[in-house]
Design a protein that fits this description.
This protein is mainly β. The chain is about 10% helix and about 35% strand.
Length: about 180
C-alpha cells in the first residue's frame, strides 16, 4: 500500500517469481547513475512458517496449526546457505488446514530468500512517470557489472522507493523474478 504521485492510495500485489512477463518501463543503463547493489537483510528471511488456525473464540485459543516443510535453501553450507532457521508464527482467521497450508506456502515463497536491491539515480526526467509498485527492466546493462556474481539478465524489478525532482529521480527497486 502506498500513496501515488497523484495523492491516491494504491495497492500493488507481489506475484510469484515466475508470474512476471512484462515491464511497465525499460530503463536504459546509460540514463542512470548506479548507486549500489545490495540484498535484503538476513533478518528478513523466514524459512520456517507456522500458521495457527481454527480459533475457538470461547477459549480464546487456536485449535490447530500447520507447518509445511521448512525451506532448506537457507540452512545449507553452500554460498547461498545461511545455516539459520528463521521462524515466522502467525495467527490467521482460517478454518481449514488446506487454506492455512497454502497461506504458509505463499509466505514461504516470498520470505525464504534474500532479494537483490538496486539503487540508482535517473539523470533525465524521462523516468519521472514511474511510481512505487511499477515493474521495470534494464537495457544496455554494463556487462562488467555483475550482480552477486551473475550477469544482469532479463530480470524484473519492482520499484519500492522513488524520490523525484523536476529533471531527475532516485529509485530503489527489488528483484521480483
Amino acid at each position: 500500500v502506498f500513496i501515488s504521485g497523484d495523492g491516491k492510495f494504491k495497492i500493488r500485489t507481489l506475484r510469484g517469481t515466475g508470474d512476471y512477463s512484462s515491464a511497465d518501463k525499460t530503463i536504459d543503463f546509460n540514463d542512470i547513475n548506479l548507486k549500489n547493489i545490495s540484498k535484503t537483510p538476513l533478518g528478513g528471511v523466514r524459512n520456517d512458517i507456522t500458521i495457527n488456525h481454527s480459533k475457538d473464540y470461547g477459549q480464546d485459543q487456536f485449535l490447530s496449526s500447520v507447518n509445511p516443510t521448512a525451506d532448506s535453501t537457507s540452512e545449507g553450507n553452500t554460498v547461498a546457505g545461511y545455516r539459520q532457521t528463521l521462524k515466522l508464527k502467525m495467527d490467521a482467521d482460517i478454518i481449514d488446514s488446506t487454506t492455512a497450508t497454502k497461506l504458509a506456502e505463499a509466505y514461504m515463497e516470498v520470505f525464504k530468500d534474500r532479494k537483490v536491491i538496486i539503487s540508482f539515480d535517473c539523470m533525465r526526467a524521462k523516468y519521472n512517470d514511474l511510481e512505487i509498485g511499477d515493474i521495470i527492466l534494464f537495457s544496455n546493462w554494463d556487462s562488467s557489472i555483475k550482480i552477486y556474481g551473475d550477469a544482469m539478465g532479463t530480470d524484473y524489478y519492482k520499484i519500492i522507493s522513488i524520490s523525484k525532482k523536476p529533471n531527475s529521480s532516485s529509485i530503489k527497486a527489488i528483484k521480483v523474478s
